[in-house]
From TrEMBL:
The keyword Aminoacyl-tRNA synthetase does not apply. This is Tripartite tricarboxylate transporter substrate binding protein BugD. Keywords: Signal. It comes from the Bacteria. Residues 1-29 form the signal peptide. The keyword Signal applies. It comes from Advenella kashmirensis (strain DSM 17095 / LMG 22695 / WT001). InterPro entries: BUG, Bug_dom1. Belongs to the UPF0065 (bug) family.
Length: 331
């Protein structure tokens, strides 16, 4: 009798296991069955938010579901990232983050997550920055600006949009390349910094082309160079030299964005999202919008999960060196 009961229980256990496995496989095959949330760890209307919304729009068709954007800002992007790192790994909560993800562990003692808590889904784009100044600055090209910085040094105010922001990272590279000690002035975002730069309260800023093109076009700021190794194809910037050709040999800085999921997201779901991302990044409307902002869409091996991770590790190592040599202690 006892053996018979054991056999029945064993049979039920095997059946339950089989049903669970079948249900899991069906869930994977049916993914996605509902809307997907992309968390942006920065404010609505900012460059990362604009990019995430454009990508979400282009992802909607290949994913076959609506994509909802959730802005979870604060602490240099770490709050939103930690939210995704702790989310259920079922493919319904994703993250769009920029270069700041590669610097977070060098800038913060405890950002609230580990890089190992995330799955890499593919790199999205790269955006160069522009070196700009207040309109009245007494320098009309990069050679004059370099001389001006050497003379004034710490008397020059260099604005940034907060610790870990793209403008902060670009400023660190600029300080290092010029061997200068300009005074960093952090703001709570790009908009107030740009307002003070146009108003002449701040001297210089190294800001994403996405944010500075309108001000450059309307001559509300002066521009001295772009941070990529190639000149930009946008009408307002075609005549602007790269900082590399202007005299800062090898200067190469771009803000990139990637797509991430919580660790342990099943491989078939990771592959499904990656395949959809590849389709989305070929969307002509998305390409047109990004190029108008001076942003190039990634179209190489960094589009794969493995290529994205490899690139990320190189960037994290590079920035760890830049941040240490600047004498910045993690907060």
């Amino acid at each position: 009798m006892h053996n018979h009961a054991t056999r029945i229980n064993l049979g039920f256990t095997l059946l339950a296991g089989l049903f669970a496995a079948t249900a899991a496989t069906t869930a994977l095959a049916d993914y996605p069955e509902k809307s997907i949330t992309i968390v942006v760890p920065f404010s609505a209307g900012g460059p990362s938010d604009k990019i995430a919304r454009d990508v979400a729009e282009a992802l909607r068709e290949p994913m076959g579901q609506p994509i909802v954007i959730e802005n979870r800002l604060g602490a240099g992007g770490t709050i939103g990232t930690a939210r995704v790192a702790r989310a259920k790994n079922d493919g319904y909560t994703l993250l769009v983050h920029h270069i700041g993800l590669a610097t977070a562990h060098s800038l913060y003692k405890d950002p609230g997550y580990q890089i190992e808590d995330l799955e890499f889904l593919g790199l999205i784009n790269e955006a160069p920055s522009t070196l700009i100044s207040k309109p009245a600055l007494a320098a009309n090209d990069f050679a004059q600006l370099k001389k001006y910085i050497a003379e004034k040094d710490s008397a020059i105010n260099l604005a940034n949009a907060g610790v870990g922001s793209a403008s902060h990272l670009c400023s660190l590279m600029l300080q290092s390349a010029l061997n200068s000690k300009m005074t960093f002035v952090p703001y709570k975002g790009t908009a107030p910094a740009m307002t003070d730069l146009m108003g002449g309260q701040i001297d210089i800023m190294c800001e994403q082309a996405t944010n500075s093109i309108p001000q450059i076009e309307s001559k509300k700021v002066k521009v001295y160079g772009v941070s990529s190794m190639k000149r930009m194809g946008i009408p307002a910037l075609t005549a602007v030299p790269t900082l590399d050709e202007a005299g800062l040999s090898g200067f190469n800085f771009s803000v990139w964005h990637g797509l991430y999921a919580p660790k342990g997201t099943p491989r078939p779901i990771v592959e499904k999202i990656n395949a959809a991302l590849r389709v989305a990044l070929k969307n002509p409307e998305l390409i047109k919008r990004q190029e108008a902002l001076g942003i190039s869409i990634v179209n190489d091996d960094r589009l794969s999960s493995e290529g994205h991770k490899k690139f990320f590790d190189k960037e994290a190592a590079r920035w760890s060196g830049v941040i240490k040599s600047a004498g910045i202690q993690p907060e």
